[in-house]
Amino acid sequence: MKLIKICITFILSIAFNSNFHTVHYTMTSHKLSHPIRLALITDLHSCKYGNMLIDAIKKEQPDILLLGGDIFDDQISDKNTVHFLEGITTKYPTYYVTGNHEYWSGRVDEMKNILKSFHVEVLEGNTKQIRLHNQIINISGIDDQCSHNYKKQLNQLHTNNNYFSLLLAHRPSYIKDYLKYDYDLILSGHAHGGQWRIPYILNGLFAPDEGLFPRFAGGIYQFPHTTFIVSRGLAKESTRVPRIFNRPELVIVDIKTSLANHSS
């Protein structure tokens, strides 16, 4: 009986572990001559991580930092998000798109202005073409669907097949819309990993928009010409239902060159 109690306690400690961890994904592209590393942060919801998240990002040394929506919350004070921004935005080129909670707060413009005060590029249906490691990369982003402008914003984005192009969009459930355009990589969040998971059996129980057993709860998904990555996000105390077997995560994406891949 004592052994059974120990086993149950051990399993529960793993199941309800809310300590964030770092998840790595790798893809290749013939459009790059030099590998790049992206850090994706979604669904922070102004939860309290102190310097742990900042230090974890620093350890990974990304080239670019991408904030995929719900970085603020509609209920929790902005102070934890502001602390996070103070710690990272002077160190990395940083790009942001809105999530639904920024709109639900009724303060979306104020939140965008906070981000801009930290020199974060707020993407609102526009594309930033940047030079990184002597190569051109297109970074596009759209507002959350709460803005009702997302289709118009998608249509006005510019992609160039000669350059590596990525799209940052908060909600994964609209992937069919995103796939109509020529993106090599699409990054989303929102689903919170389906909240409850069973490792190797159930990737997620329930996600907003997708409902029960969501297809895009979190992970990497391959389409014919596009890689799609969904972060399980960093929300913890902002959610009423605890995460089970579903630790908050920082996502790191390594994009390697096809030539380097073949030569190795």
How would you sum up this structure, described in words?
The chain has 264 residues and is of the alpha/beta class. The protein has helices at 2-15, 52-60, 79-88, 100-104, 108-117, 150-156, 175-178, 258-263, and strands at residues 21-29, 36-41, 64-67, 94-96, 121-122, 126-132, 135-141, 164-168, 185-188, 206-207, 211-212, 219-222, 227-230, 249-257. The strands form 3 sheets. A 6-stranded mixed sheet has the order 1-14-2-3-4-5. A 6-stranded mixed sheet has the order 6-7-8-9-13-12. It is globular, with a radius of gyration of 18 Å. The model is unreliable at 260-264 (pLDDT under 50).
What is the element layout, followed by pairings?
Blueprint: H1 2-15, E1 21-29, E2 36-41, H2 52-60, E3 64-67, H3 79-88, E4 94-96, H4 100-104, H5 108-117, E5 121-122, E6 126-132, E7 135-141, H6 150-156, E8 164-168, H7 175-178, E9 185-188, E10 206-207, E11 211-212, E12 219-222, E13 227-230, E14 249-257, H8 258-263
Parallel strand pairs: 1-14, 2-3, 3-4, 4-5, 7-8, 8-9, 9-13
Antiparallel strand pairs: 2-14, 6-7, 10-11, 12-13
